[in-house]
Each structure stands twice: as structure tokens, then as C-alpha cells.
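Re: the multi-chain job from yesterday

Posting the exact lines I submitted so nobody has to dig through the queue logs.
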Amino acid sequence: MTTLGEIAAVSSTRLQGCDAATVVTGIAPLNRAEPGQLSFLTHSRYRQFLAVTQASAVILSTGDAVDCPAPALVADNPQVAYARAAALFEPVAETKPGIHPTAWISPAAQIAADAWIGPHCTVEAGAVIEAGVFVGPNCVVGEQAELGENTRLVAHVTICHRVRLGRRVLVHPGAVIGSDGFGLALDHGGRWLKIPQLGSVLIGDDVEIGANTTIDRGALEDTVIEEGVKLDNQIQIAHNVRIGAHSALAGCVGIAGSARIGRHCMLGGGVGVAGHLEIADRVQVTGMSLVAKSITEPGVYSSGLAVEPNRLWNKISARLRRLDEMFRRLAVLEKKIDKDGST
Amino acid sequence: MTTLGEIAAVSSTRLQGCDAATVVTGIAPLNRAEPGQLSFLTHSRYRQFLAVTQASAVILSTGDAVDCPAPALVADNPQVAYARAAALFEPVAETKPGIHPTAWISPAAQIAADAWIGPHCTVEAGAVIEAGVFVGPNCVVGEQAELGENTRLVAHVTICHRVRLGRRVLVHPGAVIGSDGFGLALDHGGRWLKIPQLGSVLIGDDVEIGANTTIDRGALEDTVIEEGVKLDNQIQIAHNVRIGAHSALAGCVGIAGSARIGRHCMLGGGVGVAGHLEIADRVQVTGMSLVAKSITEPGVYSSGLAVEPNRLWNKISARLRRLDEMFRRLAVLEKKIDKDGST
Amino acid sequence: MTTLGEIAAVSSTRLQGCDAATVVTGIAPLNRAEPGQLSFLTHSRYRQFLAVTQASAVILSTGDAVDCPAPALVADNPQVAYARAAALFEPVAETKPGIHPTAWISPAAQIAADAWIGPHCTVEAGAVIEAGVFVGPNCVVGEQAELGENTRLVAHVTICHRVRLGRRVLVHPGAVIGSDGFGLALDHGGRWLKIPQLGSVLIGDDVEIGANTTIDRGALEDTVIEEGVKLDNQIQIAHNVRIGAHSALAGCVGIAGSARIGRHCMLGGGVGVAGHLEIADRVQVTGMSLVAKSITEPGVYSSGLAVEPNRLWNKISARLRRLDEMFRRLAVLEKKIDKDGST
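And the result, C-alpha cells for all chains:
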């Protein structure tokens, strides 16, 4: 429970047509909000609901504030203002410091006095867990792994040996950080020999790592995720990859070994990046595309194909197989026409 | 161990050329079945084996029963009949009620007297576990999460806080339900600010959720999986998605935020669905296709391309890059010909 | 700490321009190695660094050894030699035999005297854990599952009931082996009925299974991964699949039910394989391709499309939708020209 005044202060918004003392008890979408609730407008298609919303105030842009029929909190960046306001309504996780009696902590691990280690956790020898860290239930922290201040492992997270997480890193359930890279040598008999994976993983400050995402340790040097990177669920990061600061990767992205992704990049869902290439800063790749060679210029890149009715698609893909033939037939025609034209 | 008569009763099949009293001890494929075993014919290409099978009876369709040389259990829907018959041969999981001594249960959780909580489970405060629920080893049930009657978590499942599962839900190992959605606001400095994920996940009755599948909680309202939905392994469901009743999604599907999938849909393996769109009821999408805009009509949709020999594919994809040029060259030719024709 | 002589012996390499007694304390890339460190040259693009490297010796091929300015360990197969040499520098995992006091072992399980069962593990009734097995923290080994000699589960691994792993199998965190296959029968009301999954999974010797990879049990017979197969992270293997010996699958591959992959195959990252088909031995499929029908000949196959600038790609994909029309227009032109030519 808070007031519009407090919300405005936290979210750096300006009150328009509403009272700072109004009490707010929750948040709801525009068309469902009731009096006493906060709402927001971040997509223009919901603008129609401004006239009918019951919300006590709506966070919106200076543009949308013009002639706005609803009480408003006007923001330069409504997304950011909303994020800040919504944080007031998050249930506060109780994180009493201590170690749950069912956790197993190696006597050779170092745990900050105010950290929390939850039920059924395993913390191995040499691990270092810094101040304010929260380790949720059933997590594993391997030998000599380090968790920086205020880092949070939600539940069922595996941090392998020697992996280092920075401060305020948030790791969702099922994520695995520091598994062996897929390093193999082929012997003369066609059998695979494992190449030891001697590097580790270094995760910068303020990184978020989604559920069931996997990040492999480097073969010799470290796999590096720079500060502020946001990784959605079920992402696979292979060994020796480096992801530049403040890049965001959507679900199911796969990055092959030794690829380097720039800073402030955005990769859509299901994108694949081949190994040993570089992507410049500020590159965006749309969903289900394949980056097969380096990208040197910022911009938006794509190779995903959208669905058509199956019958049409079957025709298209049959034709596609004959595309080379078609080009040759076109060239033949062009020659004939030119000759005819010249006669 | 059962008899053909019992099997016929359970599977609603009719005996043809066999004796209800015949004892059956197991199930095997047509070409491997021995006397005393049940078999089935659900694909016509295995029809050849009817003449030679040693099975004591074969579940098959009324069509295949005509002139069938083998003893048969004749079904309207052999797949369904087989599913019912096979259930007789499942090893019965012993689910003695109780709480394993190594489980940790918050004193503020409610556990039905006949539920089972396995080794190394964590059940947090306010969780409600209803009658007949089975929670396998090393599962985590978060604060105020609810598991409906006879729901079953196989092992290593994470149910996050406030998530609600209906009755007879089956969740396979490594699945994560209720992780934070990937909600981010970009500030003026190009840094990502987390948008609190205040919604939850609602799973209907009779839903099955595959191994390592992830379902994110809603940003404000709930992510909803309606009754009877079947999700294969390694599926990613983003925040605020709704999946209509009785839809089935194959492995590695990814659904982006706020997408709405209809009822009785079928998505093939590796399909991607973009965010904020709607798919009508009874839509089928074939494997590795991308749904990039709404689909309003039932039917089959595709955009997956099948492999060719690499050398040919390289030619095709090089030509593809010049497809726009080709259309323009074709149009030029057409003009010339028309002009020539008109002269 | 070892010597060049020992490394040469282990890696079957020949010393050139260096002394067998030289002490080596670690490994580093060519351009970063310091005296006392070993390095290697496996990609020609790093050849330039041979002139400046400080490494005490460089593992390289007989070809690269000619006129090599750096001290060298000359190998027939530098990748294999490197793999063997690097193994000398792996931290030795201490695997004292025993059962961690927090593990829960069914009295009806059989554990070899020299096996190790880590903290918070669950080992169910009838499980058999053979000599030298290492079960890391928070793993689950189901009823009657069997782990062959010297097999290693790193952490958080789920081995379901009756699954059998061979010898020296290495399973990374979060992997799930033996979850139910996605077997469903559609009843007349459009509801899905579960088909019991009565088979199991059989994993051969020397298989490696990546983090969060899932392998489903067979519907009736077993899913089989033959000896020496290497599976990267986040791979999905459906029920009844068979993968031939010594095949390697990169991250995020998905194999649908009953597909059979040959021996010595290599599938790139994100490849999808449809169900009920066969891939011959020694087939390679490049990243993000879809195998939709059987492949009978060895060779390299592809269907992945690489990114273009988004604006160009939008044009291409719009044209692609009209590809059938284009072929027809081309054929019309050809007819006209032929007629004109014949006049």
C-alpha cells in the first residue's frame, strides 16, 4: 500500500489530474483496473481504454498525457517508470540470514554472516558466498565457486567449480553455470576424445540468467558474460563465448563456441549464432535467425521465415530447390531477347 | 498379468479369433511378440507382420480386422484402445502416503494426509498440497503454491511461489513453473531495468508438462495453461501466454510473451511463436516453423525448410539473396516481350 | 606440474627444439603463454603467433613443425595430442568412496563399496551403482536404474526408473534420462489420452550427456544411445530414438520419436530431425537445418539460412511467397520466345 505521491517520487513521474495523497493498493491492466489501483499505457493500441479505465492513475508518456481523460502519472520513459513503480508492489522476500539446517556446507566454504543458504543446498569446499547473497532451496555451489554480494539463486541452480558470479546477479531455477564445454578431438579410429575444459565462467554484475539456461566453462580461458546482460530461459552459451555488457538474449537462443557478441545487442527468441565469429555492438537479430558469419555493422538482421498455409509452402519449397535452375533459365531468356533485340 | 477378456473390457474392443480366458503377461511389437503377449497395429506399414506375429491378440481397427490372419481385439480407435490396454501393464508406483524424513516442510504448509512428499523435497510456507498428490524426490514447492488432487511431480521439479496446478497434472523432471518472465525496460543509458513479475501461473486439470520445460509467471496477470494441454520436453512458455484446452506442443517449442494459442492446436517440434499474437483453434503448425503474425483460420501451416546436399543448398541460398533482383529482371523481360509482341 | 618429456610420452608427440627435462606448470593460448607453459596450434590462423610465443613448447602438426621458430611437440593429430596433454593439468577430483550423510539411499539399492554418493542424493529401491561411480550432489537415481563402472553424474542429474547407463558415462548437471516419451492418443472428443511409456533408456559406454539435455524412455522398447556418442547441452531425444555409436550432436538439437541416427554422424547446433526416419552413417548436418526425410547417403546436408540486413530480408521473404507465380511467369515467357524463335 502506497500513495500516488510516493509512486511519483519513485518513478520520476509528474501527477496530472490526480492527488498525491490517493492511496494505491495494487496494479492492474487499463481495462481491468479498479479505483485504488495503478495502471499504465505502454502500447498505443490500448489507448482506447484511457477513456474508461477506473484506475486511480495511469503511467504514460508526455505524448499520451495530452488530452488524457484519465488521471495520469506522466513519464519521460513509461516503461522505466512502470518498472520502478511496480517494484513497490513486489512481495518482499523474507531473507533472514542463516543456513537452513538441511543444507550441507563444507567446513572449507566461506559464508557471509548475513547470507541465506536454503534447504537441501550443497556448498562445496572453497566456495565463497558474499554478503547479502540468497541461495534458494536445492541449489549446488561447487568447489571454489564465488557468489558476489546480493546475488540470488532462486532454486535448483547449479554453479560449478570455480565459477565466479558478480554482484546482484539473479539466477532462475534449473540454470547451470560452468558445465563442461563440448570440446572433442577425433582420433584416427573415428572415436571422440574429451578435451579437458580447464577454463571457467565469469558473470558480471547485475546479470540475470533465465530458467534452465546453460553456460559452459571455457576450454582454457573463461566464458564471459559482461555486466548487465539479461538472458532469458533455455539459452545455451557454449565455451569461450563472450557476451558484451547490457545485451539481452530472448528464450532458446544458442551461441556456439568462441563467438563474441557485442554490447547492447538484442537477439530474438530461438536465434542461433555459429562459433568463432564476432557480432558488433548494437546489433539486433530477429527471432529464429541464424548468424553464420560475423556482423560488423550495427543494425537489424534477419533470416527467419514466417508460416504460410502448408499447401502453399510445399509449392514454395519445391520451387526453392529449383532456384538455381530458374536463374539459369532466366539468363538464357535474357540472352535470346538481347540477340533478338540487336537484330 | 491379465486376460484378453479383461483387456477387451478396459479397451472397449471386440474379440475376433481369440479366447477371453487367454492369459496375457506383457506387450510387444508385432514382429517380436511371443505367445502370451499383446500387440497392436496402428500404422499400415506394419500390416505385413499380421501373418507371422506370435501375439496372443493384436489391437487393430475394424478395417484391418477384415481377413485378419491373427487373433485380434477390434477397436474403433486403436490408438485409444492401445493406450487403455497398455495402462494395465504399467508398473504400479507405490505411493504410500506420508512425508519422507529428509523432506523439509514449512510448518505453515498444508499437506493432505494421503499425499506423498519424497526425499529432499522443500515445501515452503503457505503451500497447499491436496489429496493424492505425489511429490517425487528433490522437488521444490514455493510459497503459497498449490497442487491440486492427484497431481504428480516426478522429480527435481520447481514450482515457484503462488503457482496453482489443477488436478491430475503430471510434471516431468527438471520442469520449472513460475520463473520470472523476461520483462525489461531500457533506460536512457542503455541499461536494462527489471520489470517486476507480479502475476503467476495457472495450470488446468489433466495437463502434462515435459522434462526441463519452463513456464514463466505473468508480468501482472497470470500465464494460463488450460485443461488437457500436453507439453513435451524443453518447451519455453513466456509470460502472459495462454494455451487453449487440449492443445499439444512437441519438444523445443518456444512461445513468446502474451501470445494466445487456441484450443485443440498442435505445434510441431521446434516451432517458434512470436509475442502478442493469436492463433485460432484447431491450427496445426509443422516442425521448425515460425509463426510471426496471428493465424485466424484453422488449418496446417508451415515454414520449415528441409535439408538438401550442402553443395546444392549453398547455391540455393546464394540465389535466394538475389531473389528481388531476379523478379525485377523477369519484369523487364516481360515488358520487352510484350512490346515486341505488340509491334 | 610435469615435464615436456612426460607430456610427449602421454601425447605421443616428438620433441623438436626443446628439452625433455623442461618443467611445465600450465597451459595457455599461443599469444598469452609464458615460459613454463605449454601451448598448441590447431588452427592455421594462429600460426603467426609461433614467432612470438613464450611457451616452453607448442603442440602442432608435422606440417606446421617445418621451419617452426618455437620449441615444439610434433603430433600426427594435434587435437588428440592436446586432449591427452591437457588431461595432465586437470584438477584431480577427490572422490573418496562412501555415501554422504545427507544422501538418502533405499535399503534395497546396491552401491559398490568404492562408489561415491554426494550430498542430498536420492537413490531408490533396486538401483545398482557399480564400482568407481561418482554421483555428485543433489542427483536422483530412480528405482532399478543402473550406473555402470566409473560413470559420473556431475550434479542435479535425474536418472529415471530402470534406465541403464554403461561404463564411463559422463552426465552434466540438469540432464534428465528416462522421462516419459510424448505418447498420446486422440479420442473422439478431441482429448488426449496418455499412452503408457513402458520402455526404458539404454546408454552405451563412454557416452557424454550435456547439461539440461533430456532423453525420453521408449514407449515399448528402449531408446538407445550407443557407445561413444557425445551429446552437447539442451538436446532433446524423443522416445524410441536410436543414435549410432560415435555420433556427436551439438547444442539444442531435437530428435523426434523413433528416428534412427547412424554411426559417426555429426549434427550441428539447433538441428531438428523429424520422427520415424533414418539417417545413414557418416552424415553431417549443418546448424539449424531440418531433416524431414531419411538420408541414405553419407555427406553434408543443410537447410539453414543465414541472416541478411532486415530490410533486404523482408524483400526476399515477400518475393519468396511469390516464387511459384514467378516460375509460371518464366515458363510463359519461355513459350513466347520459343514461338517467336520458331517463326
